[in-house]
Amino acid sequence: MKAVSRSTCRAFLEAEIRLPGDIRRAISAARDAETDTIARGELQNILANIDRAEDMKLPICQDTGVPVVYITLPPEIPLDQGLYDAVAEGVRQATAAVPMRPNVVTPLGRENSRDNTGAGMPAVHVRPGPRFTITVLPKGAGAENMSRIAMLLPSQKDRIARFVVETMLIAGGKPCPPVVLGVGIGSTFDGVAALAKEALLEPVDTMSGFERELCDAVNELGIGPMGLGGKTTCLAVKVKTAGCHTASLPVAVNVQCWACRRATVEVVL
Amino acid sequence: MVELSGIVYTARDEAHLRMMDEGIPFDPEGAAIFHCGPVVVDERIVAAGPTTSARMNDLSGFLLDAGVRALVGKGGMGAGVVGQLKGRGVYLALTGGCAALAASRMTLRGVYFEDLGMAEATWIIGFDRVPLVVGIDSHGRDLYAEVDTHAKEQFKRRFTL
Description:
- The complex is a heterodimer.
- Chain A contains 8 helices and 8 strands.
- Chain A is an alpha/beta fold.
- Chain A has a domain of about 120 residues.
- Chain A has a 4-stranded mixed sheet, covered by helices on one side. Chain A has a 4-stranded mixed sheet with strand order 4-7-5-6.
- In chain A, helix 4 links the parallel strand 1 and strand 2.
- Chain B is α/β, with parallel strands linked by helices.
- Chain B has one domain: fumarase, CATH 3.20.130.
- In chain B, about 25% of the residues lie in helices and about 30% in strands.
- Chain B is built from 5 helices and 8 strands.
- Chain B has a 5-stranded mixed barrel with strand order 1-2-5-6-8. A two-stranded antiparallel sheet of chain B has the order 3-4.
- Chains A and B meet through helix 3 and helix 6 of A and helix 4, strand 8 and helix 5 of B.
């Protein structure tokens, strides 16, 4: 389990400091396409910041987020409390090592745990898989707070695009555009939100026709980098679907800021 | 686009509430408030990008009344604040998330309200030519509102019921 803690810590270190290549490429392309001076300047700042963070081994953003962890477990590794405890220990180590800002508080009393753990934190999701991997998605609050969910009627399939675009219309510049939108369609009330967040793990280099349509529609709003106007409001939309009740059409949008931080480490025992 | 140099005071939700209750610990006349919860290690600023200013929409009036002249943050602020800034202050936008870049232009000078925790304390920070965009000026012009109006028109165009 020490290996699990170490791997978790390494994953957060990587995620907080080095932005994934596909995201950096998308931001770079957005900067190249931008003609407005202010919008271009904002994207230049973002790219300069990404470079500086990587060079100086500093966190990309001061909101180092709350710890969200996805684990793939091969059949020979038991799923027990020890696994969850080891991941939490890894989060504590990362809080000191990166360093990560202590962001986790009790929801009502607002007491800070000072080490980014707490009831239900880190948020850990486990699936079976051929290899033992730990993927982290440190999630800040700015964009997360703009996320939305709706229980549409099955007859309202044509409202899905409107719901997604409206989410960004309401958010404006608050989630630090250009954003990545994770969209969930189907499942249950809680499941669709999980799908929307999982969609943020998908690489943004390619989009399906439907994803592209949604992305273009959001960009038409012209909100631009930091809500100061411009061509690129959305870097990409990624959609995940799952089976749902014949009488339901759940839809969720998990907003992700430009600092789409993710990293995967394989646990070597 | 402007550059700001000098002393600023960080304040997020908790610090605003504390100052409303117990008074402002620094001289607010001509001061600048920075909406930020930095990462501070060994008395050094490691990361210091802005937080979402809109959360402080209803908490800023008393500071402006006390003489604060600039609010530095991201994402803009409500119509109420735009009105409160008229004739006496500006809202300056720092590129969101650019914590490493921002930190390279900042030095830590002190702190108030350390008991509120790292994110919520009022840190005293020296700015050295920090590049900012005037998002809301002192004449009632709000860049965010202009972008929002245009976005609403675009939305209606595509999604009329």
